[in-house]
Amino acid sequence: MTQPRLSLDALHPLGHGLARPESVHVYADGSLAVSHRGRGISMISAEGEVRTLGPSPAMAGGSELIPNGIALQADGSFLIANIGEGGGIWRLSAQGELTPYLMEVDGVALAAANFVMTDAQGRHFITVSTLSLPRFNAYSDKVRDGMIVMVDAKGPRILADDICFANECRLTADGRGLLVTETFARAVTRFDLGDQGLSNRRVFASFGQGDFPDGIRFDAAGYLWVTCIVSNRLWRIAPDGQKELVIEDCDPEWVQTVESALAAGHMGREHFYGTGKSSLGNIASIAFSHDGHIGYLGSLCGTSILTFATGQGAAQ
Questions:
Q1: Spatial separation of the C-alpha atoms in residues 197 and 186, rounded to whole Å
Q2: Which of 154, 41, 23 is nearest to 94 (CA)?
Q3: pLDDT value at position 2?
Q4: The 3-state secondary structure of 233-264, one letter per residue
Q5: Is 225 helix (H, G, I), strand (E, B) or coil?
Q6: Cα(236)–Cα(257) distance, integer angstroms
Q7: Is 221:313 a contact under the CB 8 Å cutoff?
Q8: Closest to 65 in 3D by CA, of 55, 51, 78, 75
Q9: How far, in whole angstroms, is CA 269 from its chain's centroid?
Q10: Could you tell me if 162 and 145 are in contact, meaning their C-beta atoms sit under 8 angstroms apart?
């Protein structure tokens, strides 16, 4: 099933005044919750009205809270992966109270927690991009100290600790596979998931110049959608690994600047928070409406969520 390529005119902003809206959760009524730097969560109504929840300013481990991945819990609270210097997974209550949830596993600090996901069984899957501090020291394809952590009834444990800048992860529909983006390896990696943890590691999809895979999400047909920062490309990948480009707003000159910095070993924060001539703000995540007809793009640098019509059915 082919996904038509979309022009930039097909994208529409929702919400306003957002701060680093990296991760998006979609409610059944079309309202959203998105990560908000220095606070916690911004709630966006289906009409675009914004209400921000969390302390002002929000501090975590002595440093500014920088929410990355967010996961809604049954009680209305959110777990927040803090990619800021304080690290850790934090809980933001429905009343806006911020408390630590998980700061270390097996004596290893969750230094740059990137993503958190809660599955139907109540298990939490967490990625930590790197143990390096600051995290910008791991902006390299030669550093492989990212982790995947699972928390279940037995407690937290490390499933993998040799990931090249671990980013988002997702379970397959049958729950027997786990996919994770390795941003600086330019790959989506797939594992089998069983009672003994992860096994049978292999590359599901690889990417080229300018593409640094970040957020991933399955649609109802089993295709994986992948956002790439720097290139501002959105890919849709078939179960057999074939890729099709859905959206692109790539500035070749900026891509070359970033690629040159990476090759020289001095890529830094400025290369992820610069956008060149692109208008998409470094798209970093994707979510879908409950019927699958609308896609939502989060970003590192945007001040709104970008929406588009997918032409698809319900998403996972």
A1: 24
A2: 41
A3: 73
A4: EEEEECCCCCEEEEEECCCHHHHHHHHHHHHH
A5: strand
A6: 26
A7: yes
A8: 55
A9: 17
A10: yes
State residue 4's pLDDT score. Answer: 79
CA distance 316 to 73: 17
Model confidence at 172, pLDDT cuts 50, 70, 90, reads very high
**CA–CA distance, 240 with 29 (Å, rounded to integer):** 33
Specify the length of the chain in residues: 316
Structure tokens at 142: 């030669």
**How far is it, in rounded angstroms, from Cα 188 to Cα 197?**
18
- What are the pLDDT digits (tens) for 235-277? 999 999 999 999 999 999 999 999 999 999 999 889 989 899 9
- Compute the distance between CA of residue 71 and CA of residue 86 in angstroms, rounded to an integer: 19
Rounded Cα distance between 230 and 210, Å, is: 6
HEC-encoded secondary structure of 156-222: EEEEEEEECCEEEEEECCCCCEEEEEEHHHCEEEEEEEECCEEEEEEEEEECCCCEEEEEEEECCCC
Give the amino acid at 280. L
Q: In whole angstroms, what is the distance from residue 276 CA to residue 76 CA? A: 38
Cβ(233)–Cβ(245) under 8 Å? yes
Which residue in the block uniquely carries the two structure tokens 């996919």? 179
pLDDT over 70, % of the chain: 98
Gyration radius from the chain CA atoms: 18
How far out from the chain centre does Cα 248 lie? 18
Residue 216 backbone phi and psi in degrees, to 5: -135, 150
List the one residue out of 14, 82, 87 whose CA is nearest residue 54: 82
Q: What is the pLDDT of residues 127-137, one digit of tens each?
A: 999 998 889 88
N- to C-terminal Cα separation, the chain: 17
Contact 86, 74 (CB under 8 A): no
Tell me which residue of 52, 70, 86, 157 sits closest to 118, measured CA to CA. 70
